[in-house]
Amino acid sequence: MVQEHTPILSIKNLTSEIIEVTFHSTAISSVAQPGQFLNIKVEPIYPLLRRPFSINNVVGENVSIIFNAIGLGTQLLAKKKVGETIDVVGPCGNSFLSFIDDTFDTAIIVAGGLGVAPFKFLSSSLHAMKKNVTYLGARNSSMIVRDGLSNPHIATDDGSEGFHGTVLDLMKADFAENDYGKIKFFTCGPTRMMQALAAYAKEINVDCFASIECSMACGIGLCQGCNIEVLGSEKKYTLVCKEGTIFETKTITL
């Protein structure tokens, strides 16, 4: 893990709501893995706290993140100019790759809204190792980012793109028509979506791994602000930034 003031290479809108920022960092790009995150301080003084962002992709020595500008920190980040620097700590957390093994045939990626953020990087990393299929759900088409995803299946709540309904309904309908062999679930997105997927994974006896999104001011376990309840352990809580952000869903309370 390193801290760098690194230059912004590009800022662009992927959709009307989602923005991509790409910056250069040899130190981060050389060690980053899918599922890890960056803790970014947008301005030197205010806002005081860092914002966590999943690593969306790594190409060469360049690293990208995606977000929508809904709070002060992300609004300020969206207004940055090419050439300006940002204060980045990372890569933080564990990786989806820790859970890739020989016990399954196909990685089933289930993402909701901006929960798609870590999966472009994962899809490209899985390409040489495992088949993978992505199910992406969102409120509407303006929240859909499919670039870099493998075999994307799209669902929107309002029917503006793809399947009209929930991403889990879409996935189950596809499962009824296609056999992907032994599978594992990898997910990120709204809590209710991940709860539903975790329940379905338990029902069909499939492992499910979730990237947990929460506020992480320090990103290294010092501030104790990102507690999550754990199951089957003597300790009742652990820290998302230190032990995660990726957990097997049967070991935590979502």
Walkthrough of the structure:
Helix 5 (191-203) links the parallel strand 12 (183-188) and strand 13. The protein has a 7-stranded antiparallel beta sheet. A 7-stranded mixed beta sheet has the order 11-10-9-8-12-13-16, with helices on both faces. Strands 14-15 form a two-stranded antiparallel sheet. The longest helix is centred in the C-terminal third of the chain and has 13 residues, at 191-203. The protein contains 6 helices and 16 strands. It is 19% helix and 33% strand. It is of the alpha/beta class and 254 residues long. The model has no long low-confidence stretch (mean pLDDT 93).
Observed structural traits:
alpha/beta; 7-stranded antiparallel β-sheet; single chain
What's a concise summary of this model?
This protein has 254 residues and is of the alpha/beta class. The chain has helices at residues 26-29, 72-78, 119-126, 167-177, 191-203, 240-243; strands at residues 2-13, 19-24, 37-41, 51-54, 57-59, 62-67, 85-92, 106-112, 131-138, 152-156, 163-164, 183-188, 208-211, 227-229, 237-239, 246-248.
